[in-house]
Specification:
The structure is a single chain. This protein is mainly alpha-helical. 66% of the residues lie in helices and 4% in strands. The chain has a six-stranded parallel β-sheet with strand order 3-2-1-4-5-6, with helices on both faces. The longest helix is centred in the middle third of the chain and has 28 residues.
Length: 592
């Protein structure tokens, strides 16, 4: 590193941290995402611009631990049963995408880039392995990691992580130094199987007892050290056995996913993961060879465009073949049409074995890095120009001339629970909701919901609001609730109105509008939670109930004063009362 000769060994660390701290907020403010910010910062501090570092490979090797820790945390969320349910997607969807895209990219490498067949295959195999770090980071930023689309993306990434092992074996087989008489390397196969067996056995019988002992010691720093030991130890075991470090960490996470210490481990690892993952993106930016791009910009641009477009075609075709809708297929295409960090491993192995020359390695590596840097921009373009997803309304019934005893507006978690008491009395309910997915889900459990938006007067009429004895408003949108209340009070003034309030202030607003039956959505649950906590701490049941009852009465009195205007909500600050042995004095928060 160029900064190694500086007076202080802290200078490289300061520069790396400063690059990330300055670049990421700027790029996120511009709507370009953190990943592109790290890439650009890495280019600036790398050997081809300001030359703060002249050997990014050292940093890249260390920063790969960020990807390792990322996979470990993903593994913590994937219980073995859930992973087993995904086996069809992993070995079906994932394998199909890898095989089809590798074939297409090899063909492009030969026909368009004029590469030798072996080099074209290695280049294609490396480019087809999308960047786990980039894809998962974008999914996390978009809040889609746990959606069905996010789970499919994870399935593909897991298969690609597994695919690096046979691809390295193929590179060794194609090597000019390979001897046909050498046969299968059974030693390497046995080593890999043994390493996997050791990891699985340790996860099943050793890890939980280990963390139980450490937790009993009540030394937080030792728990953190143990969590790091599990991640790095499993990665090291997989590395020396010839497998993927990231895959080892993922398996360790899966094995700990049912542990009672899972959340503690995740909290300990999270800060290290974030820092090292940012360092990885910085190192990838530093590794971009700007001199090569300047000298052979036409060839590099052709490689990037040809490979990304070809891979995009393959990904889209496979996505549609596996029943993804057009929008989901396009989003996955934009996210995966890139190379990844495993390409560097594969290309380095090809150079070492004599299968690929250094010039081809530099060209293909530059194409991979540029594709990783372009992916956030491609995603922005797709998000901007792709129309919003339209949900099919086929099979949904709209309300027409209903005349039930009670009209329920909104059938989310609140409405589902609230309607149970009425159903238990055999009352006739007309339930409307404007979420097609929720309606279809309710149908699976035998509940018939009509599709309709209660903020429209014609929908209220057709839903039987004029004939209903009562209308329950159970939606979680404050403004929509207010609009429905106004419609009902003006058009159906004789109908009883029961309304879910968003918070304390909303409750007061509804009462002042003349709504007599208002329920704060969180109040009852909060009182119950406080009572259960008292019981868990050893308070007698009668005393806990008395305290809760006292709190409810005080809360009702306070609400009456606030509704009447004797207490101004804008200037009201509750003052905590002293706790005595016989009576609990407390004041509710003003906005709950």
């Amino acid at each position: 590193m160029a900064v190694e000769h500086a007076s202080s060994p802290l200078l490289p660390v300061v520069i790396l941290l400063m690059a990330g701290v300055l670049a990421v907020p700027i790029f996120k403010r511009l709507g370009l995402g953190a990943v592109l910010g790290y890439f650009c910062a890495g280019i600036l501090i790398g050997p081809h611009v300001f030359s703060f570092f002249d050997d990014p490979e050292q940093i890249l090797h260390l920063a790969e631990l960020g990807v390792v820790m990322f996979l470990f945390i993903i593994g913590l969320e994937m219980r073995p049963s859930k992973l087993w349910q995904m086996r069809g997607q992993i070995f079906g969807l994932g394998a199909a995408q890898v095989v089809v895209c590798t074939a297409l990219l090899t063909l492009i490498g030969v026909l368009v880039l004029d590469l030798r067949q072996e080099i074209a295959f290695v280049g294609a195999a490396g480019f087809v392995l999308s960047s786990t770090a980039v894809v998962m980071q974008m999914l996390a930023e978009r809040g889609e990691a746990n959606t069905p689309g996010g789970q499919q993306a994870l399935s593909i990434l897991l298969l690609e992580d597994l695919a690096i092992v046979p691809m390295l074996a193929v590179v060794a087989f194609l090597s000019p130094n390979h001897s046909a008489e050498s046969g299968v390397n059974w030693g390497s196969i046995c080593l890999a199987v043994t390493a996997l067996s050791i990891l699985i056995a340790a996860g099943k019988w050793l890890l939980n007892p280990l963390f139980a002992i450490l937790a009993a010691a009540k030394a937080r720093e030792v728990m953190t050290a143990a969590a790091l030991l599990v991640v790095l130890g499993s990665a090291f075991l997989m590395e020396i056995s010839g497998l993927s470090m990231a895959m080892g960490a993922f398996l360790a996470g899966v094995l700990l996913s049912e542990s009672s210490y899972r959340h503690q481990i995740e909290a300990d690892i999270e800060p290290f993961k974030g820092i090292l993952l940012g360092l990885f993106f910085l190192a990838v930016g530093m590794s971009l060879n700007l001199n090569l791009i300047a000298e052979s910009w036409g060839m590099v641009a052709l490689a990037v465009i040809a490979f990304m477009l070809t891979k995009a075609v393959g990904i889209y075709a496979i996505a549609r073949l596996f029943k993804s809708c057009h929008r989901q297929a396009l989003l996955r295409t934009a996210m995966f049409a890139q190379g990844g960090e495993f390409a560097f491993v594969l290309y380095a192995a090809a150079v070492t074995s004599g299968l690929m020359d250094s010039q081809s390695n530099a060209l293909l590596s530059a194409a991979v890095i540029l594709s990783m840097a372009l992916t956030p921009l491609v995603m922005l373009a797709v998000d901007r120009f792709l129309p919003e997803e339209t949900i099919s309304l086929d099979g949904l019934q709209r309300p027409e001339n209903l005349s039930d005893e009670v009209l329920v507006i909104g059938f989310g978690r609140f409405g589902q629970i609230a309607s149970q008491a009425l159903l238990s009395r055999g009352m006739a309910l007309a339930i409307i909701d404007n979420d097609p997915l929720r309606i279809r889900e309710a149908r699976k459990f035998g509940r018939h919901i009509y599709f309709g938006d209660g903020t429209h007067l014609d929908i209220l009429h057709s839903s039987g609001a004029a004939d209903a004895h009562a209308i329950m408003v159970c939606i979680d949108d404050k403004h929509a609730t207010d609009h429905i209340v106004d419609l009902v009070q003006s058009s159906f003034p004789n109908t009883k109105l029961i309304v879910r309030a968003w918070d304390r202030r909303h409750y007061i607003e509804l009462i002042n509008k003349g709504v007599d039956n208002v329920v704060r959505e969180s109040a009852a649950a909060a009182f119950e939670l406080g009572e259960k906590t008292l019981l868990a701490l050893g308070v007698e049941k009668e005393e806990a109930e008395r305290i809760t009852r006292d709190m409810r009465l005080r809360d009702d009195d306070l609400l009456c004063e606030q509704v009447s205007g004797r207490i101004d909500m804008r200037h009201y600050t509750p003052e905590p009362q002293p706790l005595t042995e016989h009576k609990v004095e407390a004041v509710d928060a003003p906005l709950s």
